[in-house]
Amino acid sequence: MNESKKIIVGITGASGVIYGIRLIEELVKMGHKVHLMITDAGWQVLNQELGLSIDDKVSSLSEYIKEFNSNIFYHHMRDFNAPIASGSYQADSMIVIPCSMGTLSKIAHGTSSNLLERAADVMLKEGKKLIIVPRETPLNNIHLENMLTLSKAGAKILPAMPGFYHNPSNIEELIDHLVGKALDLMGIPHSLFRRWGE
């Protein structure tokens, strides 16, 4: 078992929320601590794409995530008293998966109007790993400029573009490929896909 890490996960209102859910499942299965935030639009997409109830949010999430346990810390978007709002907490990495263009823009411009944006700002100022998984198509110049701004600030941009060289046979394998790439960027070993040349 590898050393437990503290990972911040943000889910926003872009299509592809299954990527975030699948990542959380893998992280907690491996014993890592997950600090989770979901925007209002993120909850709407969770309802639309996965059928999660938004009446009792945390309860419906715990029913959906097979490995939901005490290693998942759910934070409301306005909870600026959460430990992840401060650089002194020393989280190992943060990922926004999927990341809407609206959230990406706010992070790129240091808005910090909610806990997710503040936590991302903290990761950048502390020089920690911040991974952005944008999910939009097509991209306009504003989207691209914002991604470039974040990349220059130290964030890693991991577009939701699964590979096909491992010959996926179902949608779950496509999802796992992207989740595996995210784990690679976090420095967390996994066996979610067959690597090129293996």
UniProtKB/TrEMBL annotation:
Per its UniProt record, what Gene3D superfamilies does this chain match? Flavin prenyltransferase-like
Which domain of life does the UniProt lineage start with? Bacteria
The main enzyme category here is transferase
Q: Which keywords are on file for this protein?
A: Flavoprotein, FMN, Prenyltransferase, Transferase
Q: What is the catalytic activity of this protein?
A: dimethylallyl phosphate + FMNH2 = prenylated FMNH2 + phosphate
Kindly list the positions annotated as binding dimethylallyl phosphate.
Answer: Y165, K181
The EC number(s) attached to this protein equal 2.5.1.129
Q: Which Pfam families does the entry mention? A: Flavoprotein
Provide any one GO MF term from the record.
Answer: flavin prenyltransferase activity
Q: Binding residues for FMN, per the UniProt record?
A: G13, A14, S15, T39, S100, M101, G102, T103, R135
Q: Where is the Flavoprotein domain?
A: 5-185
Q: Which PANTHER family match?
A: FLAVIN PRENYLTRANSFERASE, FLAVIN PRENYLTRANSFERASE PAD1, MITOCHONDRIAL
* Function text: Flavin prenyltransferase that catalyzes the synthesis of the prenylated FMN cofactor (prenyl-FMN) for 4-hydroxy-3-polyprenylbenzoic acid decarboxylase UbiD. The prenyltransferase is metal-independent and links a dimethylallyl moiety from dimethylallyl monophosphate (DMAP) to the flavin N5 and C6 atoms of FMN.
Tell me which family the UniProt entry assigns to this protein: Belongs to the UbiX/PAD1 family.
Q: What is this protein called?
A: Flavin prenyltransferase UbiX
**Organism, per UniProt?**
Vulcanibacillus modesticaldus
What gene, per UniProt, encodes this protein?
ubiX
